[in-house]
Amino acid sequence: MKKVFIILLGVLVIQSGCKKFSEFQVDPNKTTIATPDLLLNSIEQSAFQSSDITAAIACRQMIYSDAVNLSQYYGWSRAGFGAYNNLRLVLKMEQAATAQNKPEYIPLARFFRAWFFLQLTQTFGDIPYSQALKGDEGLGTPVYDNQEDIYLDILNELKEANGEITSGTTAVKGDIVYNGNMRQWKQAINALSLRVLMSLSLKENDNEINVKKRFAEIVSSPSDYPLFTGNGDNAALKFYDLQGNRYPYFNNNDMQTTNYMEETFVDLLKSLKDVRLFSFADKAPKFASLPVTDFNAYGGTRGSAAVNENKTRVLAGEVSKINPRFYTNPTNEPSIALGYAEQQFILAEGVVRGWITGNASDYYEKGIGASMSFYKIDQAAIDTYLAQNTVKLSTGNPIQQIITQKYIASFFNSGWQPFYEQRRTGFPVFDVSGSGMLNDKKIPKRWMYPETELQRNQQHVTEAISRQYPDGDNINAVMWLIKP
C-alpha cells in the first residue's frame, strides 16, 4: 500500500527524506550505542513524509494514464505490516532513552507509537497491539487486539504523553521537525488526539471511549492541552537540495509523463474559483496560450474512466499535469503530516456536532486561510475567496463543506487522511461511474491482511477475521471504526 522499510540490526532504517544519520560501522573511533537523538531523526522521516502519489490517485486528485492502476480503479487487495518496522525503531528509542536517562524522549515515543499503530488499525481493523514487538520475549505470533481497545489505548497514551511534557522538560536533540521545541511537540500530541477523536465520530455515544468528553476537555483547557496556533506549528518534513534529502518526486519520470490531474478535483476547484488550482496544476497543452490565472486553462480526466479514454484526452491536450514545481524543485514545499489547517477543520466539525461551543465558521475560515497561506496565496485573494457564498459555511450541510475544504487542503500532503475522511463521512463523493472501475464500482473500506500473517500467525489472524468480518477478509468489509 505505501512504503517498505528495511531494518538493519534492528536500528537503522534506509529511506528517503530529510537529514539522515550515518550507518553504524565497526570502528574503534565511532560509538556503536544507539542514542535516542539518532533514532528520533530516522523515525521522523518515516512518520512525516506524507506526500504520496498513490494516496492522491486513490482520493481522486490525480490519475495514472498509461495502464490500469489498482489504487485508481479500487482493485487493490492486501497491504503490508511495514509500519511495525517503524514501531521497532520507536521501541529502540524508548529503550535507549531509559538506559541513558533521557526521559524527554519518552513522550515522543508515545506519540510515534500512537502514530504508527493508528495507521495500522485504520488500514486493517484489528491488529497485533498488546503483544506486538515482543518477539524477544517469545511472542512471535501475537494475538490481534480489538480495534476499540486499540483506539482507547492510543488516546490514553497521547494523554500521558501530553502530561509528561512540562515547562521544565529538557529539549530533545536530533529533532528535524521542531528543533527540540517541546511545547510544539505538546501541541502536536494534542492535535493528533483531536484527529483520533474525530475519526471516532460514528462512536460518539460509546461510553467507554467518551469521545465528546475527551474532545471538550482538550479544547476547553488550553493551558493543559495547548494546540497549534498557526502554520509554524505544523508537523511537517522539510526537504533540502542534497542527495537523499530532496522532495520525493523531484525528477520523477511518472510525474512528468503519466500522472495527470483528476477531472472531478479540477472541476471542484473551478466551481469554487479556488486559486490553489494554479499552485497545484499546470495549464493543459490545448489551452497553453491562456493566462496562468484563467480557470479555463486547466482540465482533468476522470479517475474512473477506462485507460484508453483517458489516453485519448491526454493526447488531445485537454488534461493538466501537476504543477512542474512538484518534479523540478528539489525542495518544493514541506510535507505536512499533521497541520494547523486540519486542526481548525476538526474544531469546526466539533462545533457543528455539538461537542464543543464556539464559532464553526471562524474555525473553518481559519483552516482555509492557513491552507491558502501555505501555498503562498496573498491575504487579499484569501479574503476574496472567503467572501464567496459558495465558500461561506452554510447551515445546509456544513460538515460536507468542512470535509471538502479539508480535502482540498490535503493535496500532496496528509498521506491517506483524505481517504479515511471520505470513508468516515462520505465526502467528497468519489466518482466510480466510469467503465474502467473494478470492485463492482465500490470504494473499498480497508485492505486485506498480509499474506505473511496467514503463513506465520494463521491462528490469530483467522480469529481476527472471523470476529470482525462475517464474509471473510476482503476490501469491502466494514471495520468497527466505521460501523454506525
TrEMBL record:
Is Lipoprotein found in the keyword set? yes
The record's keywords, sorted A to Z, are: Lipoprotein
Cited Gene3D superfamilies: 1.25.40.390
InterPro entries given for it?
SusD-like_2, TPR-like_helical_dom_sf
Q: Which SUPFAM superfamilies match?
A: TPR-like
Q: What is this protein called?
A: SusD/RagB family nutrient-binding outer membrane lipoprotein
Native source species? Pararcticibacter amylolyticus
